[in-house]
Each structure stands twice: as C-alpha cells, then as structure tokens.
Design a protein that fits this description.
This protein is mainly alpha-helical. The protein has 13 helices and 14 strands. The chain has one domain: Alpha/alpha barrel (Glycosyltransferase). Helix 2 packs antiparallel against helix 13, helix 5 packs antiparallel against helix 6 and helix 9 packs parallel to helix 11. The termini are far apart.
C-alpha cells in the first residue's frame, strides 16, 4: 500500500507546479507590469454577506471576459496557457484544461450574476471532469487522457459555486447537485473526519496530508453530511488551519499538515498558498489582524512577492496577477475598501493594454506570449468578488 501511495504522490508532485493551489506549469519569472497602468472605471459592488449584489460590468471586466472567451477557451474549456504544447509534461500546460479553471469560471459567473454562462460552464465541467470518485483535476485533449485524481480544493470550489448558484438564481436543482457532489466528496476525500488533498481512483487511495490552502472552511460547513460528522470535520480542519500560523513577525501559514506524523512542513512559503488560507479564514470571520496589516503594507508598497523563507525573507522579487487578485478578494471579504481598491490597482498593472497584442484585455507576458488560466481567472474573480 505504501508503494501505491508513493506512486500517487509522485503524480501529485507533478501536478502542483509552483504551488499546490495552482496546478500549472508556471513561468520562472512573471511579466513586467505594463507601462500603461489603468484603474477600474467602476469597481464591482460587494455585499459582505451573500455576494448577491449586481456587479458593474467595467471595461476591464468586459475586455477580460472577451480575452478569456475568444483567445483562452476552446472546446473543452479554458486553456491552461495561451501557448500550445504537446501536453505531455508532468504539470498541465498548453491547451490542457483543469477543474481548477472550470471551478473558478463557475464561481465568477455566479458572482457576476451570469446564469446562462454558469449553466454552460457547469454542464461542460460535468462532461469533461466528472468521475465516479470526484472531478478529475486535468484533461489533455491531445493525449485524450483524463487523469484519475481529483484535487480537493477544486472539487470544493465547484460545490461552493453550486450552492451559491442555487441561492443566487433561485434554482433548487443546483442546491441538490451541490448536496450530491458534497456527499461524494466526503465519501472519498475525507477519512476519520480528516480532509485529504486528493483521491486516486486508479489506486483507490489518498495521500497522507492536507495542504492548508485546500481547507475551504466555508464550503466544508455546507456539505450535506450528518451533523455530528460535519461538526468534527470542520472543527478539526479549523484547528489545523489556524495552528498553521507561522508568527506575528511573518503572519503567513504553513504549507501542509501530515496526519501520520502530526507535524506541519513547508520547504518555503508560497504567497498564493498563504493568501488562499487567509481568504478561507476571512470567509468565516477568523482572519488575523496581523496577517491583514502585513498584506496591506506590502500591497501598498507593491512588494508582495511570490515566495518567502519561513522567517519571512523574500526569496524572489516575482510579483504576479494572482497574488494581487487574492488580496483584493480578502479586502472585499472583510470589507476593507482600501485593501480591495489598492489590490485591484496593483493587479491592473499586469493588464495587457496594447490593442495590437493578441493578449489584449488579459493578463500575461506580451514578450513571450504566455498567459495562464490561473492568473486570468483569479483576476476575473477579483473584479466580480
């Protein structure tokens, strides 16, 4: 059994890319911000409680939607990258599609009130990714390969989008589907009330740990499971996430928690991961003020970088669209307008504003032609959050 799990873990390592919450091949350096920096002409409205306000369709949103729909989307969904590959690498690349992208697209459609787009995206996601044990994290059209693993973070995001769609659009069918897929998720990705990163359908096994940015507390609380199991699951995951806090001096979070050893581990601290952990805590009103103050300071200075040592020393000077998109969501979630607005401004520094570029309206590196699904979909979600 250990050999089987080790084999599955080797597959997981291949899918993680830069971070465990961003399962794509990631460029070694992010693009330089464009020289033309634009601010939103009208920021999206935000309802702190239910995300059910009508979202203003800014020019930024319109241009980004157009780029994603016309340039970054094909028959099977949103491309992992604008530039095609042979789709044979360990990490997803080229015009492969990810359940991550589908779930982000679904959530953005709900938050912006696009009922038809949501239905279209959900139907496509089921068609492409649905397996007996969960949603495959990855499909390669060229290889005609559906990978037999799910990713808990993406399954939970899909379930979350379904619950929100049921409420937003007044359609109980979505709520019923959320309940159904939530029960399946619990059956395969939870053991002894512990959440695991993935379930490998081929080997009928999970890994031995949970990546902290996979712990979506708000969605776990919504799962349609018996109350006694729900309470223990959410309480245990809450403790694991909160206890992963590093320090007041560097108020980010550990990478993973191993159930066999009872210990946390982090080689280095990836900013996207810690920000998603902070966002998950903010969604249940448990964010730490030290984390928010730290983020605000670095967003204001424009120096929130991609990776740090455990002591808080920057290990690179890479800034990215996704980083500022997530801080914008955190600001919106906690009702901090200054953090929200400044993060959107920082994020917009990476918008492609050259109308002659094939990447116009999106977020990417004009020089190399690289434009990643994660950056663009996180930016779209930040606009409509």
């Amino acid at each position: 059994m250990r050999k089987i799990i080790a084999a599955a873990l080797s597959i997981l390592v291949g899918i993680t890319g830069l971070t465990a919450c961003e399962k794509t091949a990631t460029p070694t350096a992010t693009s330089t911000p464009t020289t033309t920096v634009t601010s939103p002409t009208e920021l999206p409205l935000h309802d702190d409680s239910k995300h059910d306000s009508t979202v203003a369709q800014t020019q930024e949103v319109i241009d980004l939607e157009q780029f994603i729909t016309s340039k970054l989307t094909g028959e099977y969904g949103v491309y992992t990258n604008f530039i095609e590959t042979d789709q044979s690498a360990e990490a997803a690349s080229g015009h492969e599609v990810l359940s991550e992208s589908a779930s982000l697209r679904m959530l953005a459609a709900v938050r912006s009130g696009q009922q038809e787009r949501f239905a279209e995206q959900w139907n496509l996601a089921k068609q492409i990714f649905d397996m007996n044990s969960g949603f495959s994290y990855r499909y390669s059209p060229k290889q005609q390969k559906l990978y037999p693993l799910n990713a808990a973070v993406d399954d939970l995001r899909m379930i979350r989008a379904l619950y929100e769609a049921g409420e937003k659009f007044g359609d109980n069918r979505y709520t019923a589907e959320a309940d159904k897929y939530g029960e399946r998720f619990y059956d395969y990705n939870v053991k002894d009330e512990n959440l695991y990163d993935f379930y490998d359908m081929e080997y009928s096994s999970t890994n031995t740990f949970v990546t902290l940015c996979y712990i979506n507390l708000g969605t776990l609380r919504k799962l349609s499971i018996p109350s006694q199991f729900s309470k223990k699951l959410t309480n245990d995951m809450n403790v694991i996430l909160e206890d992963g806090y590093l320090s007041d001096e560097f108020p980010f979070y550990e990478t993973r928690f191993n159930y066999e050893t009872g210990k946390y581990s982090s080689e280095n601290i990836n900013t996207v991961e810690s920000l998603l952990s902070i966002l998950a805590l903010a969604e249940v009103d448990q964010e730490k003020s030290t984390s928010i103050d730290f983020i605000k300071k670095l967003v204001e200075a424009g120096t929130l970088y991609g990776q740090y040592s455990r002591e808080g020393k920057p290990l690179n000077d890479i800034r990215s669209t996704a980083i500022y998109a997530i801080t914008a969501m955190i600001g919106a979630e906690i009702g901090d307008e200054s953090l929200h607005h400044k993060s959107i401004e920082r994020m917009n520094e990476f918008r492609v504003t050259d109308v002659a570029s094939p990447l116009y309206g999106g977020f990417g590196d004009v020089a190399s032609g690289q434009a990643y699904s994660f950056d663009n979909l996180m930016a779209l979600l930040a606009y409509v959050y």
